[in-house]
């Protein structure tokens, strides 16, 4: 199977990184899918001047900068962060590494920032006075965080921590603080046999129509419209997860699922949906899901690599397949979907990416329909009657 740049990035970084180094800053280069990643390792010290980093970037032209650092001098970290922003480089943080304390300030310099869950750790030393002593932290740090596009609540959160209190940030935390603009998600594309793509040139217009149909399929399956939509749009026979099935048989299975999980959110992850149309169309995408049964008080969530074959002449679904890549444990609520909303909302606000803007608006509606609302203090929880 083919894989995205991030799969290669994660594998390569994991092979190189052991534990956060406490030596002075040093550089390493990781080649991944023809993209060079500059790995910054060690503790930030006053002697780590930004011109050292700028020279390294000019010499190697990396696409991403990643970190393996326990933190260190805040002035040096901020200097690195501003250098990263001047050089217009994106930052990447993976769970096999750690970016701790002042390292977060350097990571924040990325023009685009990608991170995996639990790859960052903060404590009060994040906002400790640096070596320069030119300013007491408050205004200086607030100005830097604002310049990097971070939410001011990050400052409040860090200053509220007790001495010695170390917090691992979830992806929801990072997205809420504006630390991330996306997630380095390993996406495995289906095989040639799964997609059955010919050598003919695809139709751009049909590709767009197929994508819209796929998005509508996921949207309706998240509502009470789901069964009627499928009734109208399945072919008389469907190759369902590799087996030829009658339409009636597939609909019966779908009905049983809908009754078992009456609350459903299925969300196509922004930027992952692709269509190839010839005589028929094949759409592949990563879909995040959350399901809940009020009567059983059970819930589940995860991600699936989904594949759909669609006939643009009849507008009927001919085949459906998928492979679950992630299944969350101990699900108490739609954290995965909220995380998606936070990252899409950040991408929409920072870059006005249309697919992210459309996605965050749809997710907000689907979360609300499922009984989850955003509160006045920007936290999420069960909706309450006004």
TrEMBL record:
Q: Which UniProt keywords apply?
A: Plasmid, Signal
Q: Which Gene3D superfamilies match?
A: 2-enoyl-CoA Hydratase, Chain A, domain 1
Give the residue range of the signal peptide: 1-23
Q: Could you tell me what this protein is called?
A: Hypothetical conserved protein
């Amino acid at each position: 199977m083919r894989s995205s740049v991030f799969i290669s990035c994660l594998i390569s970084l994991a092979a190189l990184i052991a534990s956060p180094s406490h030596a002075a800053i040093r550089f390493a280069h990781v080649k991944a899918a023809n993209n060079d990643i500059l790995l910054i390792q060690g503790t930030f010290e006053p002697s780590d001047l930004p011109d050292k980093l700028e020279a390294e970037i000019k010499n190697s032209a990396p696409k991403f900068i990643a970190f393996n650092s326990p933190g260190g001098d805040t002035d040096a970290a901020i200097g690195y962060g501003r250098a990263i922003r001047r050089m217009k480089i994106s930052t990447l943080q993976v769970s096999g590494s750690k970016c701790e304390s002042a390292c977060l300030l350097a990571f924040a310099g990325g023009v685009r920032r990608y991170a995996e869950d639990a790859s960052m750790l903060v404590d009060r030393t994040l906002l400790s006075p640096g070596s320069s002593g030119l300013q007491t932290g408050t205004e200086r740090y607030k100005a830097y965080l604002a310049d990097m596009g971070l939410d001011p609540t990050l400052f409040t959160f860090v200053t509220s921590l007790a001495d010695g209190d170390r917090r691992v940030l979830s992806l929801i935390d990072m997205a809420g603080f504006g630390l991330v603009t996306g997630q380095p998600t390993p996406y495995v594309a289906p095989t040639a046999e799964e997609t059955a793509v010919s050598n003919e040139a695809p139709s751009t217009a049909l590709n767009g129509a197929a994508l819209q149909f796929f998005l509508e399929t996921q949207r309706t399956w998240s509502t009470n419209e789901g069964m009627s939509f499928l009734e109208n749009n399945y072919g008389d026979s469907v190759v369902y997860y590799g087996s030829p099935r009658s339409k009636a048989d597939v609909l019966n299975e779908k009905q049983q699922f809908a009754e078992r999980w009456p609350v459903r959110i299925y969300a196509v992850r922004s930027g992952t949906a692709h269509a190839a149309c010839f005589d028929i169309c094949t759409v592949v995408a990563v879909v995040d899901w959350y399901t809940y049964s009020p009567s059983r008080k059970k819930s589940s969530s995860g991600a699936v690599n989904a594949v759909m074959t669609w006939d643009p002449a009849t507008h009927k679904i001919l085949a459906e397949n998928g492979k679950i890549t992630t299944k969350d444990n101990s699900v108490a609520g739609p954290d995965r979907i909220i995380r998606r909303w936070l990252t899409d909302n950040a991408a929409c606000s920072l870059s006005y990416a249309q697919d992210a803007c459309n996605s965050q608006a749809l997710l907000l509606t689907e979360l609300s329909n499922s009984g989850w609302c955003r509160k006045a203090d920007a936290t999420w929880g069960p909706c309450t009657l006004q």
